[in-house]
Design goal:
Elements lengths: L1 H20 L2 E9 L2 E5 L5 E3 L5 E3 L2 E5 L4 E6 L4 E4 L4 E10 L4 E10 L1 E5 L2 H4 L4 E5 L2 E5 L3 E7 L2 E8 L1 E6 L4 E5 L6 E4 L5 E4 L11 E2 L9 H9 L8 H14 L5 H10 L3 E13 L5 E10 L4 E11 L2 E12 L2 E11 L2 E11 L6 E9 L6 E9 L1
Parallel strand pairs: 9-11
Antiparallel strand pairs: 1-4, 1-6, 2-3, 2-5, 5-8, 6-7, 7-10, 8-9, 10-13, 11-12, 12-15, 13-14, 14-17, 15-16, 17-18, 19-20, 20-21, 20-27, 21-22, 22-23, 23-24, 24-25, 25-26, 26-27
Length: 376
C-alpha cells in the first residue's frame, strides 16, 4: 500500500510539473534566423517559428543576425535582438480575473518590451539582469548588455533598477533621466539622450522626397531622443515602436478586416533599409491587398545600392490579423536572388508594418534588408 501511495504521489508530481511546464506564456509573432526555446524542466530544445507557443519554463536564444518577437498572454510584447538569451522564469495570467505575475531574466544580448495587463492591473512584473533587478512602473523600455555593461532606455513610463548593492536607480517619467549605462562594477552613468547602442535610422517619405533629402532626415531620426523633441521626431519614434512590435489587438482587427471590402493599394511611407554594399537609395515598395478574397495578389520592392538595382515581387494571403507573404521573384542587377518578407496590420488596418531580407543566390554575402511601413 505504501508503495502504491508513493507511486501515485510520484505520478501526480510529474503530472503537475508537466502541467506547469505547459502553461502558455505567449505566442511567437516573428522569428527570423536561429531562434531556439529550451524547456528548463526537460532540457528539450525546439526551433521557434511564427505562431509557436512559448511557455513559462522556456529559455529563448537568438543567434547571429537573428531576432524574435513575442505577444505575451497578458497582451505584453517582448522583442529579442540577435545573440540574446532570455529566461522566462514565470509568466502567469488569468483571463477571467485579469490578474497575474511575471518574472523574466535577460542573460545576454538585448530586449525591448511593452508591458501588458499584468502590470496595468498592479501585478508583479520583474526583470532580472546581470547587474540588478528591474521593477516596472511604466510600459515601454529597452535593455542591451555589452561586455558586462548594461544600457537602459525608457521610452514610456518608468522603471526602478535595484543594483546588487541594493541602491535604486529610477529612470523615465517624472525622473530627471530616461537613459543610463550601468557598468559591470556597478557605476551608473545617466544621460538625457539614448546611448549609441539604441540608435536607429528611419527615413520618412514625403510626396516630394528625393535622395538628397535623406541624409538630413536620417540625422534627425538619430537625434529623436533629445529633450527638445519636435513633431517630426515624434513621428519617427512612433514608427520605430510600431516596427519593433508587430502585434495588435486581434479581436478588433479581425472585425475590421471582415468589414473592409475591395482592393486597397498600400505604398511605403517610411523605411529603414541597409545593404552589405553600402548606401541604399530610391527605395519604393507597394502592396495590393484584396479584402474580399483575403489575398495579397501582388507586391513589389525596389531600391539601389552600389551593385545595382534590387527588385523583389511577392504575394500571399491574409491569415487572421497577419499577412503570410512569400517572395516569388528577386534579383540584384543581373543576378538572381532570394529572400523572406514578414508583415502585419497595426491597430488601424490602414497601416502595414514589417521587414524583409534579400540575398544573391550565388553569393549570399551580398545581401540587403530592413523594415518598412505601408499606408494606402
Amino acid at each position: 500500500m505504501k508503495h502504491l501511495i508513493l507511486a501515485l504521489t510520484t505520478l501526480l508530481s510529474v503530472s503537475f510539473t508537466s502541467q506547469a511546464s505547459n502553461t502558455a506564456a505567449g505566442k511567437t509573432i516573428l522569428a527570423r534566423g536561429d531562434v531556439l526555446a529550451t524547456d528548463a524542466s526537460s532540457a528539450q530544445q525546439r526551433t521557434l517559428k511564427r505562431r509557436d507557443t512559448v511557455f513559462g519554463v522556456d529559455r529563448i536564444t537568438t543567434g547571429e543576425k537573428s531576432k524574435a518577437q513575442f505577444s505575451m498572454s497578458d497582451g505584453g510584447l517582448i522583442a529579442l535582438k540577435e545573440n540574446s538569451e532570455l529566461n522566462i522564469a514565470n509568466y502567469e495570467f488569468d483571463n477571467a480575473t485579469q490578474q497575474g505575475s511575471a518574472s523574466i531574466e535577460l542573460i545576454k544580448g538585448g530586449l525591448r518590451s511593452i508591458s501588458g495587463v499584468i502590470k496595468k492591473n498592479g501585478g508583479s512584473y520583474n526583470v532580472k539582469t546581470p547587474v540588478g533587478s528591474i521593477g516596472i512602473r511604466g510600459t515601454h523600455f529597452e535593455l542591451q548588455l555589452v561586455e558586462g555593461d548594461m544600457y537602459v532606455a525608457v521610452w514610456d513610463g518608468a522603471i526602478d533598477l535595484t543594483l546588487d548593492d541594493q541602491s535604486v536607480v529610477s529612470l523615465g517619467s517624472n525622473e530627471p533621466f530616461s537613459f543610463a549605462q550601468v557598468t559591470a562594477l556597478g557605476d551608473v552613468i545617466k544621460t538625457t539622450q539614448a546611448p549609441a547602442v539604441f540608435t536607429q535610422t528611419f527615413a520618412p517619405i514625403d510626396d516630394d522626397n528625393n535622395a538628397e533629402q535623406q541624409p538630413e532626415q536620417q540625422s534627425l531620426a538619430q537625434n529623436n531622443t533629445s529633450e527638445n523633441t519636435t513633431d517630426a521626431d515624434t513621428s519617427i519614434a512612433d514608427v520605430y515602436a510600431e516596427q519593433q512590435f508587430q502585434a495588435v489587438s486581434n479581436a478588433s482587427l479581425i472585425d475590421q478586416i471582415a468589414e473592409r471590402q475591395g482592393v486597397f493599394n498600400y505604398q511605403a511611407t517610411s523605411f529603414d533599409v541597409s545593404s552589405s554594399l553600402g548606401e541604399v537609395s530610391d527605395f519604393t515598395m507597394s502592396m495590393s491587398v484584396d479584402f474580399d478574397n483575403g489575398t495579397v495578389p501582388d507586391g513589389e520592392i525596389s531600391f539601389n545600392d552600389a551593385g545595382g538595382n534590387w527588385y523583389a515581387a511577392y504575394s500571399g494571403l491574409i491569415d487572421l490579423t497577419k499577412l503570410d507573404l512569400a517572395i516569388t521573384f528577386a534579383s540584384h542587377n543581373n543576378n538572381k536572388a532570394t529572400g523572406e518578407i514578414d508583415a502585419v496590420f497595426l491597430n488601424d488596418i490602414d497601416t502595414i508594418t514589417g521587414d524583409f531580407s534579400l540575398e544573391e543566390i550565388s553569393n549570399p554575402a551580398i545581401n540587403a534588408g530592413g523594415d518598412f511601413r505601408l499606408e494606402p
